[in-house]
Amino acid sequence: MRETALFILLAGIITTARADSKDGCLALNFGHGSVVCVCNATYCDSLGRTVLPDAGQFLSYVSNKAGSRLMESQGQFQKNSTGAALRITLNPSQKFQHIKGFGGAMTDAAAINILSLSSGAQDQLLRQYFSTDGIEYRFVRVPVASCDFSTRLYTYADTPEDYDLQNFTLAKEDVHMKIPLLQRAQALSAQPLYLFASAWSAPAWLKTNGALIGKGSLKGKPGGKEHKTWAQYYIRFLEEYRKYNLSFWGLTSGNEPTAGEMTNYSFQALGFTPETQRDWIALDLGPALHSSSFSKTQLMILDDNRLMLPHWAKVVLSDIKAARYVHGIGVHWYFDRLVPPDVTLTSTHHLYPDYFLFATEACAGWSPVDRGVRLGSWDRAEDYAHDIIQDLNNYVTGWTDWNLALNQDGGPNWVKNFVDSPIIVDPSKDIFYKQPTFYSMAHFSKFLWEESQRVGVSFSQQTSLEMSAFIRPDASAVLIILNRSEEEVPFEVWDQTVGFLPGSAPPHSILTLLWNRQ
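^ thats the sequence. predicted structure below, dont judge the formating
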């Protein structure tokens, strides 16, 4: 562990760091329950590269409300039981879904905030997300044209009646902000990034309400010229980004289709029912993708709250003409508390096991009763970890956060729909804050490699701990544990190939355990 002599003078508070990780967190407390870690162009706490421990050893990484951030320690498996009342048994013969990965969204707002920093601080921020020294995000969601986290309303084809999209043009936000940052992120990543695109609204002249916002859907019917133009709009977007050497792993059939169908949304939206989305995919979007050079692009339906499941999936995937073009189902986390995950996610998986489930958007600070940025909120870190574990334990294959970076107001956002982000930028001081939610994401994204497989886990008694277990492609094991209680919970992990792992989950903590099973 490396000590640092760096001191930060901020808001009249001097804070020094304790080296909890390999490069320690420079902690700052804003009075919201826990601390943020302060980073600048020359310093940021970093876990660094993780190395699998020797056989019989395990690594433990802890983040908690008390201020630890990915604090690493090493321990030894034992041949005999530790006598802990709670035994957690790994059941690798019970095999479930494979993991795709974790990530966030490169919105206009995220790009604006990242670019508001000096070049050195920009690189530092991107490294935190994408490099092997950082938390190794693999997925980036890219809005197609503007969304609420833009500073203006625009599409790429705002010329009325341009059904052939002859005037289709990427915006300055793409060419000068998002694309350069995506290229830099890819250069920092040890593996190819998986980009996926989501559109908020079609051009106003294609819509029934003649506006980008509010309640409105495409004019005409699936198979008609408006629907075919909207399908080609996606193809043109993929073509234009390819000119910058950026290829897309996937796309969604449109962000939150219920917003433009059921409510008078105050920002960009395009309404679909499951029936009209089904027919548009079957007649327009699916054939357009299939006949293009992007036929292998993964198409996800829904891209909306999971409470729409399994109904939405039943409508779209029961139609063979639409289902042949679909690969997965995208879900958002808003209103998750209203519907049990087994009723929505697991039931959908069992109905349609050939289609992956993937979490495409989540953010803290979206609720009107708890709006915007809360620097250092541990409750929000626990909300993230709880939802991710719940999703993973119900067949979800990955989890995508919303904005990669926001300012201290939770924007910019042209409609003032301010929310929180794992990284908050303060350009006036050329620094950024890593929120507790950043570390919540890290406990999953850093350790759950692509193709890791969820396996069974059982308990000797009822417990307040929440957990999910995985076997990685190198045959190592990962166990992630969330303790949302006020009490420390001692336990032992029984892995029949290695022995007994003695452990304890501190109060209000997230714990990742890693060991070699060979």
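The longest helix spans residues 225-242.
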